[in-house]
Each structure stands twice: as C-alpha cells, then as structure tokens.
Write a sequence for this structure.
C-alpha cells in the first residue's frame, strides 16, 4: 500500500508540472550527461570585461558552496576537466546553450548508471 501511495504521489507531482518545467528538467539532465554544448562567460560588472569563457560539453556544479561554481567539461571519450571559480560582488556569470537540443515536454528523463552504484576500488600500498 505504501508503494502504491508513493507511486501515486510521484505521478501527481509530475502531472502538476508544466511542459516548460519538464523540458527544462530534461535539458538540464542532458547537459549533466555532457550532451549539450554550452558557453559559460564570467563577467566583471565594474570594468565591463569578460574575464573567462568556457565552451564545450559542460555541466555546472549542483552542490557548490555559496559564491563558488564548478564547471566540468568533457574533452574526450573518457577525458574531463573540472574548473572551480569564485564569485564576488562585481563578478557574475551566465550560461548560454550554444545549440538547440531535443527535450520532451511529456516525459521526464531518468538516467540510470549501474556502474555509479558499484564503487571503483583503488588499492594503495
């Protein structure tokens, strides 16, 4: 009975979302899977200068500390680069999606990776 109630609550939560909410969620999920090209620009509001631009298949950090941001970019089949940046009162950033990407407004996207559940154990001597 508890499982049925949980499933019903999940369905009701999804049903309450607008098409834009679902499409936005799916685009964010695609970016986190390195499927969406982005341009991230850091801008100094006092001088009006662009300080840094990062462009490629990049994902923004989801659990960054206040006034910090991390950007992880896929640079090859199994190669990644991660950047950490600090924000201040005069430095801000914006993220532009470079190309259009398909996103269904009717169905949430769920990505299941069994290898992420099984730990990769490293033995050191």
């Amino acid at each position: 009975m508890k499982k049925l109630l949980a499933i019903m609550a999940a369905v009701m939560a999804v049903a309450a979302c607008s098409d834009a909410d679902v499409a936005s969620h799916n685009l964010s999920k695609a970016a986190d899977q390195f499927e969406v090209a982005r341009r991230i620009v850091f801008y100094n509001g006092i001088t009006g200068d662009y300080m840094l631009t990062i462009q490629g298949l990049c994902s923004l950090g989801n659990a960054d500390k206040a006034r910090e941001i991390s950007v992880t970019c896929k640079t090859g089949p199994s190669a990644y680069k991660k950047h950490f940046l600090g924000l201040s009162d005069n430095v801000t950033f914006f993220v532009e999606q470079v190309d259009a990407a398909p996103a269904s407004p009717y169905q949430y996207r769920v990505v299941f990776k069994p290898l992420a559940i099984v730990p990769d154990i490293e033995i050191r001597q």
About this structure: The CA atoms of residues 6 and 80 lie 37 Å apart. The radius of gyration is 19 Å. The beta strands are 37-44, 50-60, 68-76, 79-86, 91-97. The chain has one domain: 2-102.
